[in-house]
Every structure is written in C-alpha cells, then in structure tokens.
Task: inverse folding
C-alpha cells in the first residue's frame, strides 16, 4: 500500500495543484471535499492532511471548517491560506477580516527554525534572515495564533504569515506553496510530505501499472469489456492499460465519422490492432454521418447530430458484443474532482459517460474507469510506460466533433478531404520546424503550441496560378498557446514557417488558393471556429 496524503478542498481554484505537486514529489495524494465525515478521516489512513485555500471567510457565520477529526488523527496537518485561517480559528486563535486584499508577489521572512522551512530560502538578507519569494492571495489574516503555536514567517502586511505547533506537527502558511510563483513551493511541500509526514517516494508509473493491472483483473474477473477508442490520449491509454490486464477480453470500438485527421484511422489500427494486438472494431460510418449532416449549417445543430450519431453507432456495435458486461472510459482525475458535489456531505457524484457524449443507460453496462485517479500528465507518463509512442501521447487535443467544427457551415465530404490534407501539411511543418535550431534542447513549434489546426472556409476567392485564373476555397490556420484552454493567445509563429505552409498548401491541395492566419485571442474569439 502507498502512503497517501489527504487534501481537503475548501474551494480554491488551485487545489488540484496541491495534489499534483505532492504527486510530483512521488507521494500519492487525493482531493476530497472539506466536509467529509470524521469517520472518513479516521478510516482514510492518511500519512498527512493538507487543508486547501478557499474563497470564504472564517469570520463569517456559516463558513467551511475542517472536521475536528483532522486535528485528532495524530498525523501532520498543513493549512494553506484559508486552510491556515480555519486551523487558527478552530484551535483557539483569531482571524481578522482584512480590509485590504493582498494579492500577488510577496517576500516573507522565515522565523524560528521550523522543520518545514529549515534551510529552504530564496535569499538571505544582510541581517542574516532567510527570505522566501511567494505568492499571496488573501483578504483575511490570522492575528492571534492558537495556544501552542509559534511564528514561522512574517511580512510587513501579514505579521503572522506562517505558524507551527511542532509538537503536534501542525503547520500553516498564508501563501500558496502549490503555485509555481512561490519559488520554493515544491521544496516546502516535498519537505512536508517526506520529512514531516514520513512518506516514501513510492508513487511511480511502473509500480502503478502492476497495481492497476491487478485491480482491473479483480474488478472485472472473467467478464468482457468494451471501450470506445477515439485515438485521443485518454481512451488510448485506457485501452493499452486494460489490454495489459485482460488481453482479448477487451474489445475496442473505433468509430470513424469521416471527420478525423488525415490517416487517423490507419494510425489507430496500426498502433492498437497490429502493434499491441488489441481487438479493435473499425467502423467506417462516414456515409451515415455525412447523410445526417447534409444541409445543416448551424454549429450547435451539427454538434448535436454528430454526438447523437456517435452514440447510435456505438450502441449498434456494442450490442453485437453480447458478452460484454463493462464499458471502459478514459475518465481522468480532474473530471472526478470537478464533478464531485462541492459542499455536500460525502457526495462524489461522477460525471459518467462524458467521453462518449452521453451513452444511454440502456446499454446496461457497468463502468470501468481505470484512469480516474490520474492527472493528465500522469496519464501521459503511463501511456509512455505502456509503450505507446511519444508522438501519440503528446498530441494536441482534438475535439469530439472533429473536423465538423472546423468546416464552417455545411459539412461535405469533399471539404473534409481538402481540409484533412491542408491540416496535415500545417502539422508536419510545425513538427519539423524548431523554435530555436541552436538550442541545446530542441523544441518544435508543434510542442511549443497547445493546439494548432487548419479551418475550412467555404468561400471562394480569386487567384492566379501559372497563366490561369483560379476561383477556389480559403483555409485559415490557427495556432494557440494556453495553459488551460479557457483563455489562449494566438501563437507568434515565424513568418517563414507560415509562408512555407501557405505555399505547400496552395501547391499541393488543389481546390485551395488562399491561406490566412488567425490572430485572435480567446477571449474574445474561441479556439475552434465553431
Ligand atoms: P473553444 O473553441 O471553446 O475550445 O475555445 C476549447 C477547447 O475545447 C475543445 N472543444 C471540444 N472538445 N467536443 C470536444 O471534445 C467539443 O464539442 C469541443 N468544442 C471545443 C477545443 O478543441 C479546445 O481544445
């Protein structure tokens, strides 16, 4: 069994980052709502507990508190921001409603030599004080420590910026060690989980594979499993993992709606069916999708049709596999955390079927979600450890409706064929062009962008080629850089690269005589054009 750290979520935007940092330190950690029961805390078996930040104020009546069992469990506790304030309040200190919010960069002075900060600092002042460069984001602050606590750090604005009761191993920091702006954040969290909680670094992918394989076998026994394989990272890694566990008892269904990238079907079949020996049913449903999309130009209507037909095809195919008892999905941990009912006792309602666009319950299958404990970067590491190619695992995301939202207006097969080829040229050039060819560690423009693709514009413009006039379609190129896909910047691709892509598309894809580059950010534009 792994040692594990329990993170109680008080609603901060960055709670997930705490779990990721702890896992980066090689220690398994899970996020649960702050109002889990005392029973839950007692039975969980945490080696340490972290209380996250949150938007509430402990100075107001009915705001979140940690279960008292947290402080009675006999394990180290680390409070962060709101977590520090609730710890102070619950253990007999005082919190004052701050008149001025403190938001952003701050330098805190470490005081006393606590186990949490010992020898961790960014610089030392001329008087010999260790200083930390940190990220603050709070209104309230602790103005009286609970009995037994001593001062661990302070700033001018926030005299009690961190405190500790080292006997009970309770630590609390007003700043956010989980964000990268806090330069020593990783070192502090690593110190907490390793030295203070005593956890080993036992969270690694090779071990995880054998555990996950054993747990899948235990879960499904001799039953058969079906999985909708999309070629995306999550479903691909889930397929490879389940196949490792149960081999031939897994059948994947790969639905080609005719709106996939160039050679996607071939690539998926080669990878899974030929290389890994996974049973894959390849359904070419192009005609069915194109038939239903004919004459429809409204983006939302198109999305609905594609989603509906997808379910239809999947249902027909899975209906043929009469022995299947399980439906496998590539649900990952952020989906699980986000769909957990916040603030409701013990509720962890899971967003089912999110990957295959709402498969109806009439399938009568039990859900198998072997990635539900993993963050995206862990899913990628797992994929590589399972032998999937790096180029597949680190691909840009591709939307479920595929080229259907990249062909503006009515979708036609001929448009999809042109777009696929233009898109492939763009991606090939991004992969082949290095951001800095002289850099020690080369990075391609593909890896330097978060998502890049071509969009088909169903308008014709006039051009000349050779001696003749042309009157053909336009393709727009889109490349963005983003952390979370909620906001995005357009990528400043080099002009030579754009020029080369434009030349190649116009020369190689007959039917397109003009290429434009999209220089809109999100907001106000979205990443996809529809
Ligand atoms: P937007 O266009 O909203 O896209 O800025 C944000 C991210 O979401 C992806 N996207 C989708 N993914 N089904 C999906 O599976 C969809 O209908 C869909 N629409 C947008 C988009 O590719 C981008 O990564």
Result:
């Amino acid at each position: 069994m792994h040692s594990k750290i329990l993170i109680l979520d008080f609603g901060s935007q960055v709670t997930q980052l705490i779990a990721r940092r702890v896992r980066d330190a090689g220690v398994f950690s899970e996020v649960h709502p702050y109002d889990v029961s005392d029973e839950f805390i007692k039975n969980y078996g945490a080696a340490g507990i972290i209380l996250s930040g949150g938007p509430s104020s402990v100075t107001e009546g009915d705001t979140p508190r940690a279960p008292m069992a947290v402080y009675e469990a006999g394990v180290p506790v680390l409070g962060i921001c709101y977590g520090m304030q609730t710890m102070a309040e619950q253990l007999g200190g005082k919190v004052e409603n701050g008149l001025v919010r403190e938001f952003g960069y701050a330098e805190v002075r470490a005081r006393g030599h606590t186990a949490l900060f010992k020898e961790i600092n960014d610089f030392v002042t001329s008087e010999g004080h260790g200083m930390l460069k940190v990220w603050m984001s709070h209104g309230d602050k602790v103005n009286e420590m609970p009995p037994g606590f001593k001062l661990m750090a302070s700033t001018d604005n926030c005299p009690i910026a961190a405190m500790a009761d080292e006997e009970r191993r309770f630590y609390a920091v007003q700043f956010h060690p989980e964000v990268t702006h806090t330069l020593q954040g990783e070192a502090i969290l690593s110190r907490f989980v390793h030295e203070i909680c005593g956890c080993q670094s036992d969270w690694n992918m090779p071990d995880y594979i054998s555990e996950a394989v054993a747990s899948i076998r235990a879960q499904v026994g001799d039953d058969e499993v079906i999985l909708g394989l999309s070629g995306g990272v999550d479903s691909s890694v889930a397929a490879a993992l389940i196949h490792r566990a149960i081999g031939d008892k897994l059948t994947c269904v790969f639905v080609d709606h005719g709106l996939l990238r160039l050679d996607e079907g071939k690539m998926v079949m080669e990878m899974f069916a030929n290389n890994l020996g996974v049973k894959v049913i390849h359904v070419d449903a192009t005609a069915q999708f194109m038939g239903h999309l004919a004459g429809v130009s409204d983006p939302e209507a198109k999305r609905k049709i594609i989603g509906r037909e997808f379910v239809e095809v999947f249902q027909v195919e899975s209906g043929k596999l009469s022995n299947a008892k399980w439906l496998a999905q590539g649900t990952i941990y952020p989906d699980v955390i986000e769909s957990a009912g916040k603030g409701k006792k013990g509720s962890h309602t899971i967003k089912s079927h999110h990957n295959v666009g709402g498969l109806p319950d009439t399938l009568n299958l039990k859900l198998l979600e072997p990635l539900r404990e993993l963050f995206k970067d862990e899913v990628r590491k797992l994929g590589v450890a399972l032998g999937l190619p790096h180029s597949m695992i680190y691909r840009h995301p591709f939307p479920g409706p595929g080229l259907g939202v990249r062909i503006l207006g009515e979708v036609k097969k001929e448009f999809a064929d042109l777009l696929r080829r233009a898109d492939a040229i763009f991606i090939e050039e991004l992969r082949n062009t290095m951001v800095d060819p002289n850099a020690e560690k080369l990075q391609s423009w593909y890896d330097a962008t978060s998502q890049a693709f071509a969009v088909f514009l169903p308008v014709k413009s006039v051009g000349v080629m050779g001696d003749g006039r042309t009157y053909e379609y336009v393709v727009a190129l889109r490349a963005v850089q983003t952390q979370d896909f909620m906001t995005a910047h357009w990528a400043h691709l080099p002009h030579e690269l754009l020029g080369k892509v434009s030349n190649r598309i116009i020369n190689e894809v007959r039917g397109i005589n003009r290429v434009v580059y999209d220089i809109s950010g999100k907001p106000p534009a979205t990443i996809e054009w529809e």
The chain has three domains: 4-196, 205-394, 413-517. The chain is about 30% helix and 25% strand. Residues 341-357 have pLDDT under 50 and may be disordered. The first strand starts at residue 4 and ends at 9.
